[in-house]
Amino acid sequence: MSLQLEPTAEEIHAERLYADIGVKDHEYERIVQLMGRKPNYTEIGLFSVLWSEHCSYKHSKPLLKQFPSTAPHVLQGPGEGAGVVDIGDGQAVVFKVESHNHPSAVEPYQGAATGVGGILRDVFSMGARPIALLNSLRFGPLTTPRMRYLFEEVVAGISGYGNCVGVPTVGGEIQFDDTYDGNPLVNAMCIGLIDQNDLQKGIAAGVGNTVMYVGAATGRDGIHGATFASEELNEDSADKRPSVQVGDPFTEKRVLEACLEVAKSDALVGIQDMGAAGLTSSAAEMASKAGTGIAMNLDLVPQRETGMTPYEMMLSESQERMLLVVEKGKETEIEVICEKWDLETAAIGTVKEDMRLTLTFHGDVVADVPVTALTDEAPVYDVPSEEPADFREHQQRPVWQPQSSDYNETLLQLLSQPTIANKEWVYDQYDHMVQTNTVVMPGSDAAVLRIRGTEKALATSMDGNSRYIALDPKEGGKIAIAEAARNIICSGAQPLALTDCLNYGSPEEPSIYWQMEQSTAGMSEACRTFDTPVVSGNVSLYNETNGEAIYPTPVVGMVGLVEQLDHVTTQPFKQAGDVIYIIGEAEPAWGGSELQLVEDGKISGQVPTMDLELEQARQQQVLAAIRAGLVQSAHDIAEGGLAVALAECVMGTELGADVSMKDDVAELFAETQSRYVISVAVEDAEAFEQAIPAARCYGTVTDEKVLRMKTTEGQKLIEQPTDELHHVWKGAIPCFLKSKA
Amino acid sequence: MKAAVIVFPGSNCDTDMSYALSDFTDAETVDLVPYTAESVAEYDAIFLPGGFSYGDYLRSGAIARFAPVMQSVIAEAEQGKTVLGICNGFQILLEAGLLPGAMKRNKDLKYICRTVDVKVENADTRFSGEYEKGETLRIPIAHGEGNYECDGQTYETLKKNNRIVFTYEADVNGSTGQIAGITNEAGNVLGMMPHPERAMETLLGSEDGRRLFTSVYRHWRDTHVVTT
Amino acid sequence: MVNVHVYITLKEGVLDPQGHAVQNSLTALGYEEVEKVNVGKWLRLEVADGNNLDSRVENMCEQLLANPVIENYTYHVEREAKV
């Protein structure tokens, strides 16, 4: 009945109804051309979601091509549910990051929760058991009740979903900045482990095979989620609330266990998550990858609500659903497994030779579209790009000079910045230990997970300082990759590969497209230098509120391999008497630094430079020293500079530090890249100095709980009891959240 | 010793528990037993793992308590067999009435995952024989509903009969008497919120949980193996 | 069919941290007249009408829906108005 209420193909054309669902005029014309007729309502719906930025990457494809995506250790690059990297012994690691920014902005708990659910499915649909979750979050300052609400609910959503499914949330990062006030970012990453023999792909191969639906029934939730994710937010966004899906982690857990069992069955041909754009994208993409067609009878789709139209069923983003292609005649094998996990299954279609997506409903054909038109023929835009005026302006500014003179006070101020402050309030809410593999818990440079039954471990970290990228996208892009790699190195691992989530404003704005071009170019260059290919990722554009774009925020999720468990290294100092070395000279480049933000309330000028060759050489030196057993603790110098890094090395220990240095504010707080704080046992000092000639001895770890930094002439720069540092650093976020203002 | 680890839909510490038993005790077999099993009579010790059985919808453990396997678990418990519930397993034992009291949400309404100090109050049970009374253990907690509640009379009874086996050294979740683990009157059923199965290796931060499992094993050996 | 509405609340005297949190929040928003908040659960059951409806519903509450150690329940039966 509701079918008759839908507009006809003629009406869609005449009244430009396609525009309401995000299809542009020229795109509509192209669709008519590809189909040889005007699309009906269901058909235009299919195009609207598959041709959305979220599914088609129509504005970002040329940029994504720059990224290196192959290497001998890469088993699967971008294009499948997640990237796959060889870690030896017949095992592989499977990982991907995905954004859930828009849904989280309108309904933070469910938005974040379903973001976690979606990324888990991307990983276990490959046949891999998820072993870790991470997330990268961006919020506005915690000074308004609304932002505190968003922050608390996003964290609760991640916790509620991940904890229940039983996958540890082991790390991630959070930054706070005005730029995210109207448009917070929620990027979730999942890592899975698999025996290479068990790898699955999302393909609909084998004409005559059965298309099977597994998991939760379909409701009207999330219709047009992919299109919603490709639009900017405005005052009306709250009205789009029905677009937000509700997650059911209990069903997810059962779908997970069932899929991992199904993956071992020869009956399975292909499997894919019904993620963004639901049944539409999974069916079209699986057929496209296999060069086949799919015919589905929508009457057979399990439905949670009554009176659903084909349009609604195809575009629903109900969660916890998978689409399987199963060898004909072996459906029962799959059904038996799913029944064991109390999951609904339905054979809803067949793989065809005709390379068309054909949908029937109540006996009528309601859509008949060439698969390639939906996937391969999606437009790719060559977008104009233009260097924004303020970029030159920042480059030409005189070097910014900090005003700070009371260094004790400055250090305490920096430690209480939410971006630097301790995040225990957050990760205490995440079960980071379930599965009992977490060797290094959240709060270190990188999380480390042992691989049971081997001597190996995985190190993983998420990074992306958007302030640098806002001022200088290319240099900032390099820094994002370098910092992720440095964090992996500090934990004792060799960086292997990465996944990225590219969060930007509207690509249709030439200055924003320029940011995208420049930052991805910088990232690509860094990836090549470190031999860390991009194996998966996600693009989130139109992160704007009322015309104001966020800082360009590419987020990097990197995975590295620890060859031997005894290489695992953490940042806290270990014992009094150890020698403290600093690798790398500080330089007075303050653009985008935490200190600049504290003093000016905004960022300006030139960012620290990134010498990729030097970075790479140092990383390998540090890793070699760690592997040689010469390193007690390692920490990179990042936000807040050396003073903050040293403070972080004494936090939570019964130790202090006594160091001396040049009388120079840059030495204390500059964020010059490619630098490390490393502590070394006295007996290894000589060997360490030979291994890393650039390392300079700054002082020693003491058993007095005080951080002392002084000039080489003995003049006090900073002297603070560890407990006071700890108090300020740990108390900052809870203190913001308690504020009622 | 034959050990059963019950897998409810939504259990997620089942494999961790199984590793703890198979890698760190001399248990002869450790089976993951599905919630649909009709009987667990063949096992010497029954372990209810942590997780979110049935999504913890309604109340933690409320639905799992009616899972088919539970009839047999209850019957075996009543006959004196060793039954240990950890975290969600403890919640299920409370709902099943094998242990007194109930769980509420943590006092600050947040899920807490953290390694905490747990004090051994009674080292004279089959679950804690290898600990010393008064000893402090480092054991992780990971729960949103671990705020143990019971009425004053129940609390007095628990105390008087030495049924409080573990307490938290600090008030982490609001539990009555900072209770972390209790036994039934007969002493063969223990429920505890902290996760000893996560404290088996120094590599992961603590091995203070090991002796709980070895205590159970030793108790079984002492009562079942005839020395020659 | 009748609709049975079941309300589950914490027993008097059992600390209700959710209620406290909601009350504090209301106070912060200026609703100082709110003196106490209790947070509970509401369940709607669609049940075939029958002779021993009340005793069946009470059993459901005692056996599964509420935990008598800490919770109370009340319910009411909604019958469609006969036209």
Description:
- Chain A has 27 helices and 28 strands.
- In chain A, helix 20 (473-490) runs parallel beside helix 21 (510-530).
- Chain B has a single domain, classed as 3-Layer(aba) Sandwich (Rossmann fold).
- Chain B has 228 residues and is an alpha/beta fold.
- In chain B, helix 2 links the parallel strand 3 (45-48) and strand 4 (82-86).
- The model of chain B has no long low-confidence stretch (mean pLDDT 96).
- With 83 residues, chain C is an alpha+beta fold.
- Chain C is built from two helices and three strands, in the order E-H-E-H-E.
- The longest helix of chain C is centred in the last third of the chain and has 13 residues, at 53-65.
- The mean pLDDT of chain C is 87.
Outline the low-pLDDT stretches of chain C: none
User: Stretches of chain B where pLDDT falls below 50 for ≥5 residues?
Assistant: none
Mean pLDDT of chain C: 87
Per DSSP E runs of 2 or more residues, the count of β-strands of chain B stands at 11
Q: What would you give as the CATH superfamily of chain C?
A: Phosphoribosylformylglycinamidine synthase subunit PurS
Relative helix content of chain B: 10-25%
State the strand order across the main sheet of chain B: 2-1-3-4-11-10-9-6-7
C-alpha-based Rg of chain C, rounded: 16 Å
Could you please say which CATH topology of chain C applies here? Mth169, Chain: A
At a glance:
Chain C: It catalyses: N(2)-formyl-N(1)-(5-phospho-beta-D-ribosyl)glycinamide + L-glutamine + ATP + H2O = 2-formamido-N(1)-(5-O-phospho-beta-D-ribosyl)acetamidine + L-glutamate + ADP + phosphate + H(+). The complex is a heterotrimer of chains A (741), B (228) and C (83). Chain A is an alpha+beta fold.
